[in-house]
Amino acid sequence: SLTAGIVGLPNVGKSTLFNAITKAGAEMANYPFATIDPNVGMVEVPDQRLTRIDELIPAKKLVHTTFEFTDIAGIVKGASKGEGLGNKFLENIRQVDAIVHVVRAFDDPNVTHVSNKVDPLDDIETINLELILADLESINKRYERVEKVARTKDKEAVAEFNVLKKIKPVLEAGKSVRSLEFDEDEQKIVKGLFLLTSKPVLYVANIAEDDMAQPQECEYVQQIQQYAQQEGSETLAVSAKTEEEIAQLDEGDKLDFLEAEGVEESGLDRLIKAAYKLLGLATFFTAGGKETRAWTFKQGMKAPQVAGIIHSDFERGFIRAETISFTDLDKYGSLAAVREAGRLRLEGKEYVVQDGDIIEFRFNV
Ligand code: GDP
């Protein structure tokens, strides 16, 4: 399954945030403690649609879909030329599908900063520079070889060389590959290069509790946002310390706490949703009977493939997907009413499943 890796300089609040994640995960119903790597934190994906579906199509049990964060260990600075821990840092990033980059955006004289000053842009650039250098090294390794083959007019080599030519100067200028735009064919080539700076990134500004009600007014947040925007990335402001406290509360206390802070949703819930989106994930539902359940699929997947997420037999024997959208169920108020309105769809093998679809798969056994 796809995972988002948490990275950041030392002392910016990564462990605090990761603790919040694992604590929230520990509250989950069927939490498979024993099987989990200590660097992996599993959380439920908050989704209010599940409760609404249960109201309209009652089931014995509600099951949320889950999602994994990975805590990226290792030393950042000098990683690209380094051995040991530095290399491990880059290797760990290579394994994840998206990056959650935690940046310190709080002042606190009691918490040492690695470079003795709180400077979000400098922090971001320190990490990104290591990733850029590592990518430049991979690109340089291929460059001459691919150029040679491209001279023979080999089509694939020409296409790849054009991509390399586009990427190289950008990296040399100290920018991430994700700041470039690629067409569909180029995207495939870029994917095959396994670069670090082409992975999607979410910047998480770790703000002071005092800034929680109005994060937009925090100058650090504004700086991070500005940087993120120019490479097409998003920024999320959370207070890791507060999230760690919230994660230990039960649901009722949590809601009271959030209300008192003047926020609707916990930072962790926002983070989970943002990371889910960052990975291109979406949710479909199965409803009624034993359980109503949310499932994760990758956007763009077709019905048989999605059926295979539930069980491989569903994919092999796929006949059709009887589908209604959550929006329709919510609007018409019952399954019967949705049917009556002609909004039940019989979808076939080529159907691209949409976020919020409620599906009953028909299959041969
Ligand atoms: P890591 O090295 O990035 O994993 O950082 P830690 O999570 O261990 O945090 C480093 C220190 O900063 C710890 O003493 C935390 O308690 C403190 N810290 C983390 N988040 C916050 C925050 O939002 N506000 C304040 N004031 N301190 C924080």
From TrEMBL:
Domain of life, per lineage: Bacteria
Cofactor annotation: Mg(2+)
Listed GO CC annotations: cytoplasm
Residue ranges the record marks as coiled coil: 129-156
First and last residue of the signal peptide: none
One of the record's GO molecular function terms: GTP binding
PROSITE patterns, per database record: G_OBG, TGS
Residue span, OBG-type G domain: 2-258
The TGS domain, residue ranges: 280-363
UniProt entry keywords in alphabetical sequence: ATP-binding, Coiled coil, Magnesium, Metal-binding, Nucleotide-binding
UniProt key word Nucleotide-binding: yes
Chain positions recorded as ATP binding sites: 11-16
HAMAP family, alphabetized: YchF_OLA1_ATPase
Physiological role: ATPase that binds to both the 70S ribosome and the 50S ribosomal subunit in a nucleotide-independent manner.
Similarity annotation: Belongs to the TRAFAC class OBG-HflX-like GTPase superfamily. OBG GTPase family. YchF/OLA1 subfamily.
Protein name, entry field: Ribosome-binding ATPase YchF
The species this protein was found in: Liquorilactobacillus satsumensis DSM 16230 = JCM 12392
